[in-house]
Design a protein that fits this description.
- Pfam families: AA_kinase, ACT_9.
- Belongs to the aspartokinase family.
- One of its GO terms (molecular function) is aspartate kinase activity.
- Keywords: Amino-acid biosynthesis, ATP-binding, Kinase, Nucleotide-binding, Transferase.
- It is built from 13 helices and 17 strands.
- The two termini are 42 Å apart.
- The chain has an eight-stranded mixed β-sheet, with helices on both faces. It has a six-stranded antiparallel β-sheet with strand order 13-14-12-15-17-16. The protein has a three-stranded mixed β-sheet with strand order 4-6-7.
- It folds into two domains: 229 residues, Carbamate kinase, CATH 3.40.1160; 141 residues, 2-Layer Sandwich (VC0802-like), CATH 3.30.2130.
- By secondary structure, it is an alpha/beta fold.
- It is globular, with a radius of gyration of 24 Å.
- The structure holds aspartic acid and magnesium ion.
- Magnesium ion binds next to loops.
């Protein structure tokens, strides 16, 4: 039986008609059965600007953005010589965009819920265009398959956490059975939208910025795909971000465990949560470039052939270190519980933690500090100190907590850089520490040199 492949193409792969045709060629060659696409590059940002402008500025200003978005899509439609049927679909979406902007403008109110519907237009427009590109490419290759546009909201059931909705896995699987069962026959190529979903009550949601990868993984799980392919503009995951370190090399394979630890992937290739559905169902993930599909790309899977001590390194900027201390923690129980309950109540995610007898330090994204109530709530239990402008550096590999001399080698390579906090021991696959923001690039370059080059 032929493999069922779910593919995702990002915004740059949808950039213009040429990009779309190139991406369609990749899908055709690979034999994708279900393709989830992002909005054309920049469109999601433009739609957000549209919503904000409609809410708080003049209608003239709003119209300017409307026509910019419209023109960009009309150009692609013209270049692709869109069929009458697809043209009509695009026109309907333009009308919806116009009406939504008008509604927001009259009400002077762009709620997150309204914003989600507005943003969904990006993926809904690009998927109409890409279906056309896919049809043309299938025809060109004399394929017996046909491309069919599929509204992902029929299957991607989420909760009503607008702007960051959570998919309901069990329901997605049941709905995929019902509406996408024929994907197994491989007679059609389904083209659908990344990033968007729908609540039980029929309201459109989005999964959070950059969420198309996640959509594709959820769909791969839902249809029990054999492979998930993520096509982007870089040829896979690199040993580190090539913009920071030009010596970065592509990684041919990485295990699920290492990849999950690589919280912010080398060149930001993957949305961190993307892998969860694939891990759950043990679906191998391929990450490649639609611009250079001959390049090797990276396989992310459960079992890998090589287990290097250090495979990759990443940095996460804009971190703060929050240290909470109180003598009450001495020999006491339940103290961490109380503190973490505060983080939980504020829905704040903690990345790294270290503790001493009377204090605990946690790293957070600096945006969490905008929430003044969080610090106030923490202050009820402990003395709170905040250090800003930090970067978290993670080294990802294997057997990290069982290798003699590793820490020495790491700190010898960056002996001139002050390390503010270290986290080691919880994982075989990750060693991370904090450094000052302005020393982070140098730290990565030095570490890359001693471990990878
Ligand atoms: N179009 C959405 C965004 O720009 C989702 C995605 O591209 O993954 O965030
Ligand atoms: Mg994107």
């Amino acid at each position: 039986m032929t493999k069922l492949i779910v593919s995702k193409f990002g915004g740059t792969s949808m950039g213009d008609a040429e990009c779309m045709l190139r991406s369609a060629e990749v899908s055709q060659r690979q034999g994708s059965g279900l393709i989830a696409v992002s909005a054309t590059s920049g469109t999601t940002n433009e739609l957000i600007l549209l919503g904000k402008t409609a809410e708080s500025k003049t209608w003239e200003e709003t119209e300017k953005i409307l026509s910019k978005i419209r023109e960009k899509h009309v150009k692609i439609a013209q270049d692709l010589k869109l069929s009458a049927e697809s043209s009509k679909k695009i026109e309907t979406l333009f009308e919806e965009m116009n009406s939504l902007a008008k509604g927001i403008h009259y009400l002077r109110d762009c709620s997150v819920k309204a914003m989600d519907t507005l943003m969904s237009l990006g993926e809904r427009m690009s998927s109409v265009l890409f279906t056309e590109a896919m049809s043309q490419v299938l025809k060109k290759h004399g394929s017996t398959k046909s491309a069919e546009l599929f509204d992902v909201r029929q299957v991607l059931r989420t909760n009503d956490d607008f702007g960051k909705a959570k998919p309901n896995t069990a329901e997605v699987a049941a709905l995929c059975q019902k509406y996408l069962g024929s994907v197994r026959d491989q007679k059609k190529v389904f083209v659908t939208q990344g990033y968007i979903g729908m609540t039980e009550d029929g309201f459109t949601t989005t999964l959070g910025r950059g969420g198309s990868d996640y959509s594709a993984a959820i769909l791969a799980e839902g249809v029990a795909a054999d492979v998930l392919e993520i096509w982007t503009d870089v040829a896979g995951i690199a040993t580190t971000d090539p913009r920071i370190c030009p010596q970065a090399k592509p990684i041919s394979e990485i295990s699920f465990k290492e990849a999950s630890e690589l919280a912010t992937f080398g060149a930001k290739v993957l949305h961190p949560a993307t892998l969860l559905p694939a891990i759950r169902k043990n679906i191998p993930v391929f990450v490649g470039s639609s611009f250079d599909s001959e390049a090797k790309g990276t396989w992310v899977r459960k079992d890998v052939d090589q287990h290097p001590l250090i495979r990759a390194m990443a940095l996460r900027k804009n971190q703060v270190l929050v240290t909470l201390s109180t003598p009450e923690m001495l020999h006491a129980h339940g103290f961490l519980f109380q503190l973490f309950k505060v983080f939980n109540d504020h829905k704040v995610s903690i990345d790294a933690i270290t503790t001493s007898e009377i204090s605990v330090s946690v790293t957070l994204d600096d945006s969490t500090l905008l929430n003044k109530k969080l610090i106030a709530d923490l202050s009820q239990f402990a003395d709170v100190q905040v250090e800003e402008k930090l970067t978290l550096i993670s080294l990802i590999g294997n057997n990290i907590n069982h290798t003699a001399g590793l820490a020495k080698k790491i700190f010898d390579s960056i002996s001139d850089i002050n390390v503010r906090m270290i986290c080691l021991g919880a994982s075989k696959h990750n060693f991370c520490f904090l450094v000052a923001e302005d020393q982070a690039t140098a730290a990565i370059q030095k570490l890359h040199k001693s471990f990878i080059e």
